[in-house]
């Protein structure tokens, strides 16, 4: 189903039942075809972006600051509309996590994780099941009654991941979610995402400024040019999952990271 086409009037995003996967084009979770975005005032954020994410595929996006990475995710989620081109996604709401975990400080972990399901009107019993499962998947058991102020930055991010998991997304969008935590916590959160992906098999589109993180997580890395963002390289990452933490120090890993880095350097040119 084509949800956004330049010139179409804004429409409500169509949605399937929770947990149901309704692929738009069989095997494709997200497709951008020649997508451009010009903001009112004339900022050209994206130009002619074509990009496909297959069902269950995990793709990372790197590019200079201002190259339109967040805009790309906002368009993929239906929060923003393209100025040109076509975006094709399934009818379900995607999972979406941001750099800031945006938790409600007065709610407990359980209350925060259950927020989206509550806003969606999911019945209490089902909500409890979804929340318990998401808390277990993100390793937050024992912290259910804690409030955000009593959690570390990494744990707050896990609450944000858990909250997004309750929508049982077939497409998961990550907007540089681990930029604000220390290196080891960042690696552990990456391992968490990889375990979730292995179990839930969602398609992932993950924006990051870290080349190492981009290569370690993805089966393909997309490199955007400086503004207006265009896809200047797509680099396959050939390593099998699950990937050990120390794959990062492997010579073959270094070769892929070097290729991504070189493309990224060009993008700054
Ligand atoms: N609502 C808006 N109105 C006008 N300009 C915008 C709007 N949102 C983003 N922009 C501009 O579009 C360009 C792309 O922004 P975007 O946030 O998508 O880039 P980014 O690659 O995610 O950047 P960063 O890596 O710094 O987070 C920037 O120049 C930004 O200032």
Task: Give the uncertain stretches in residue-range form.
Answer: 1-23
Treating each run of at least 4 consecutive H or I residues as one helix, how many helices?
A: 8
Largest sheet: 6 strands, mixed
Order of helices and strands: EEEEHEEHHHHEHEHEEH
Instruction: Estimate the helix proportion, in percent.
Output: 25-40%
Query: Quick one: how many beta strands?
Result: 10
Fraction of residues in β-strands: 15-25%
**What is the CATH top level name of the largest domain?**
Alpha Beta
Bound molecules: adenosine-5'-triphosphate
CATH superfamily of the largest domain: P-loop containing nucleotide triphosphate hydrolases
Specify the overall morphology. Answer: globular
**CATH architecture descriptor text of the largest domain:** 3-Layer(aba) Sandwich
Question: First CA to last CA: what distance?
Answer: 37 Å
Describe the protein.
This is Putative ATP-binding protein BAB2_1147. Helix content is 33%, strand content 23%. The chain has 269 residues and is α/β, with parallel strands linked by helices. β9 (220-224) and β10 form a beta hairpin. The chain binds adenosine-5'-triphosphate.
